Amino acid sequence: MLPLSLLKTAQGHPMLVELKNGETYNGHLVNCDTWMNIHLREVICTSKDGDRFWRMPECYIRGNTIKYLRVPDEVIDKVQEETKSRADRKPPVLGRGRGRGREDGPGGKTSGSRGGGRGRG
């Protein structure tokens, strides 16, 4: 399971985000991007020591400041089901490329009198 696929599935669900500086943010995930920047709504921020709380309508958290994410178990289960169903639907891929062991064709022994292919000479 990839972290970004987990976050995409968690959109609209509550989550806890702990930052490297110790602050925690509890809110509903609105969106995330490929750098794991996170946009939360209905946020409660808790200070590092746990003494102060702030309520915010929304906040944006830069991805490289995140230390820990906690999402509901139902989201994790949903991602695992989607991954499994996607793997079941995908047909097996056969014959991916020609490989390096063939002697015929470009650069092979039967392609001409010169040695071959992409060498430097």
From TrEMBL:
Gene3D superfamilies: 2.30.30.100
Keywords, in A-Z order: mRNA processing, mRNA splicing, Nucleus, Ribonucleoprotein, RNA-binding, Spliceosome
Biased composition (Gly residues): 107-121
A Pfam family: LSM
Chain segments carrying region Disordered: 80-121
Biased segments, Basic and acidic residues type: 80-91
Signal sequence bounds: none
GO cellular component, one term: Lsm2-8 complex
SUPFAM superfamilies to which the protein is assigned, alphabetical: Sm-like ribonucleoproteins
Listed GO biological process terms: mRNA splicing, via spliceosome; nuclear-transcribed mRNA catabolic process
Keyword Ribonucleoprotein in record: yes
Domain (Sm) ranges: 2-75
GO MF terms held by the record: RNA binding
Location(s), subcellular: Nucleus
Record text on subunit structure and interactions: LSm subunits form a heteromer with a doughnut shape.
Role played: Binds specifically to the 3'-terminal U-tract of U6 snRNA.
Family from the record: Belongs to the snRNP Sm proteins family.
Name of protein: U6 snRNA-associated Sm-like protein LSm4
Organism: Gossypium raimondii
